[in-house]
Each structure stands twice: as structure tokens, then as C-alpha cells.
Amino acid sequence: MTHFISALPKVELHLHIEGTLEPELVFALAKRNGITLNYLDESALRAAYQFHDLQSFLDVYYAGMQVLLTEQDFFDLTWAYLVRSHADNVRHVEIFFDPQAHLARGVPMTFVVEGIVRALEQARQQWGLTSRLIMSFLRHLTEESAMETLRLAEPFRSHLSGIGLDSAEKGNPPTKFARVYAQARAQGYRLVAHAGEEGPASYIRDALDILQVERIDHGVAAITDAPLMARLAQARIPLTVCPLSNLKLKVIDQMSELPVRQLLAAGVCVTINSDDPAYFGGYMNANYQALQDGLTLSDAELLQLALNSVEACWLSPPEKARLTQAVYAHGDAYGVVLAP
Ligand code: HPA
Ligand code: ZN
Q: Rounded to whole angstroms, how far apart are CA atoms 114 and 108?
């Protein structure tokens, strides 16, 4: 790990809290909740983390979260993630949770939201680590299920900054959720959606034009569509790219194929994130490092990625200005000069 990366002040914008569930915590929570697992121990479970596409990951991801039952479980899960993020010099996080995956198991929304929020509040008080929470809909489920979830979230509205869309992308286009997003927009939610991970560039266009999202999660398929690239760059629409995720789920065959340098050169607001770090082999520093190793990015390019994340986040303008200053100060300490 280079010191430039570990000491770089970072912002994480694409993180599924259920994707931070490490095998050790799976076993601890299974024991606490009296659940019998199909795996003998932590290393046997970790050995099952071999994926060939998004769906093969999702099957393991939804199975793993069965151990999450109580408010304390959601607190412990979130706290463990925040401890790791703080160690990675992450200053601000915007995290997804998948309420439908818990409601379907009889776990009420209060346990989920209150457990997560209690940990987020503790991190803010203890370290000044700030956060936003994004409720994500499962796109393999129906529009009605998403609508019902939006309704169930009303008592928790003050804790939720935005809504997102995740799970199996192919065959579940953004258009399926046009009315859900229109409702959420009317309720003042900020809007993001996963698009162009396994799905085509047209899903990115539809997320922008039909769902009216302000940020695209993943979005790497944009590289195949020159007019879309120009539009993303011109409007500075952020892409939350996840290097180790794309590698593990075989969106790319090797890291050198990830189009981050091209996106930067085109002026797109590309950002680096960890997605589901317990499953994909690393948190924020590991993602920056894997990218640096695969693409031999310059320190100036890494600095630009960190600045993009601050630009793309939902902090207030003064908070953003303070973080931007911290990133520039880090660059100055290394004599890094940004491209004009
Ligand atoms: N893509 C789609 N669904 C997900 C992901 C992802 O990267 N992570 C958790 N659910
Ligand atoms: Zn994701």
C-alpha cells in the first residue's frame, strides 16, 4: 500500500452495508441468533466467494444476510464497516441498504434503519466521519413491492437522503421503476441508480432521462457510447465505479481493462468505491491500490479521483469546501500538480 493512497482523504459513495458482512461476523451473529449455517467455519464460507457474474454473487449475498435479525445486528454490521473506513482515512460515506431483503424475512424497517443510523451517529461523534443513507430497491422484484417499501419508509424519511436501485440488472431496466422514482422525487428524495454494470449503455441513458437520477452507480458501460460519454462529461454526472467488484464479477477480465483513465481524460466525474468489500476482497484503500497497480495511475490522477468524490457527494457546500481543501493539502504535501 502506498502512503499516498493510505493518507489520501477519501469519500465513499457506492457501498452496500449488507456487502460488508465479513465471514467472522456471519458466524458470530449466527451463534447469537441461534442460526445453523451450511458452512463449517469462516474459511469454508470465504472459499464460497467465487463468482462468475453478478447473479452468482447475489445468491451468496442474499444468503449471507439471513443472520441479520435485530437492531443490534445492524448496528454491529455498520460499526464494523465504519471502523475499517476510518482506518482507511475515509472522511464521508454514502451507504445503501436493501430493506426488501430484510422485510421479506420478517425483519422490520425500524431495526434496520435504527441500527444503521445509531452506528453512523456514533462515527460522526467519535471521528467526525459524516454520512448519508440511501434506501435501495431490488430491481428483480416488482414495481408494487418497491412502491410498498417507499410507503413503509415514510416514518424514517428524515434519516434517508436518497433512493437507489440494485440487484440483477439484465432484464430489469430502469423503465420498470419510472413511477416509483417519480413518487420518490415528489417526496424530495435524491435519486441514484445502478446502471451499466452488466447492462447496456442504454440503461444509463434511461436512468438519466426516465428516472432522472443525478448519479450513476457503476456506469462503466458508458465507455462504449461516445455521445453518452460527452453528455456525462458536460453535465459532470458522477459515476461511482467499483474496481475490485468489476474484477470479481467479471465485468472486466483484468484491472487494466477498467476505463478509469479514459473516463478521467474525457472529463467525466468518475469516483472509486468498494461496493461489497467483504465479498470482493477489499475496502477503499485496497480499491485505490488495485487500480493503481492495474493502471499505473499518477498521483495527480488519484488526487483527481478523490476530488471527484467530494464534488459528487451530498455534503453541504461548506463541508465540501473543507474536504476539498484537505485533498488539495494532501496533494501539496507530495508536490502533486493537477492537469489543468
Ligand atoms: N450490483 C447490483 N446489485 C448489488 C450490487 C451490485 O454491485 N451489490 C449489492 N447488490
Ligand atoms: Zn453496488
A: 10
